[in-house]
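Hi R.,

Here's the chain you asked about this morning:
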Amino acid sequence: MNPVPDALSGRLAAALERRSALLGRLRSEQTDAYRLFHGAAEGAAGLTVDRYGDLLLAQSFHHPLQEAQLAELETFYARAFPGLPLIYNDRSRSNSRIINKLSPKRLAAARQPRRARELGVYYRIQGRHAGQDPWLFLDLRAARRRVMREAAGKSLLNLFAYTCGVGVAAAKAGASRVVNVDFSKSSLAVGEENARLNDLGVEISFVRSDVFPALRQLSGLGQPRVARGKRMPPFHKMEKQQFDLVFLDPPRYAKSPFGAVDLVNDYPAVFKPALLCVAEGGAILCCNNAAEVAREAWMDQLQRSARKAGRPIRDSEWILPESDFPSYDGRPPLKMALLRV
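And the predicted structure, written out as tokens:
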């Protein structure tokens, strides 16, 4: 079965028309990074097209685009956004790695360091780099927007920080102090570059660490050197401290000697120590991108976990992705909740 209809350009045009009001508002907010086509809800499941500043990035996740389909895509966006190169990444294999080759000229364009802007904050981007995912996840714009509303004069702990977009946005919005934690040296390096692109003027740090030992130390639970009879690998030493805001965006599944992250079966394993890092009267913004997890069940799990930790939730607020990420049923796979404790 052909995953993309023959009338692809018509669907691309309809998606662009639906976004006309949003794109006008985003331009006024100094934003040039957004999703142009969200195939899961706009007629071509597995196909996405994003704008990142002066670059367009098309990605296919279920099936490779046929040559004629790619040509149709390129022709449409060359007319809609003249002068912006379009890079196509085929990520249709099960491991989601990019598998298609590009011409030397297009590969050079894909690897060229660029910058995109969101809500007045600059971010480093490339169409292709050593990793797979784009350096800025656009569906998290709503969360970054919410953090910027909260951040002035407050401290922020950004967990699973990736390229530190949330941390840099908070610092730009006037946070008093920002701590970004991620295990990936290369991702943190991009985060440091993001910080340099912006006039921040606040304390912002980049901690390379497995999140579990970082959280156990920050929360006061402590990270033993030996656990279950096994000596733990070396870990970054941190003092106990709390933050006004904690941002928690774990991967779907990850395992290390220090613990396992499992958004479907055991979100509390990472949520509880993160919650203990929130100062009294503060807030934690949690994310869960596992589509099969119902948001009501997830919220119930968070509430129960908070009560067991002795940090009951006083108030909760759902944050929905913005309208360039439409969903058929109003229940997008990415769930974001701001919880006050």
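Residues 138-340 form a domain with the Rossmann fold fold (CATH 3.40.50.150).

Let me know if you need anything else.
M.
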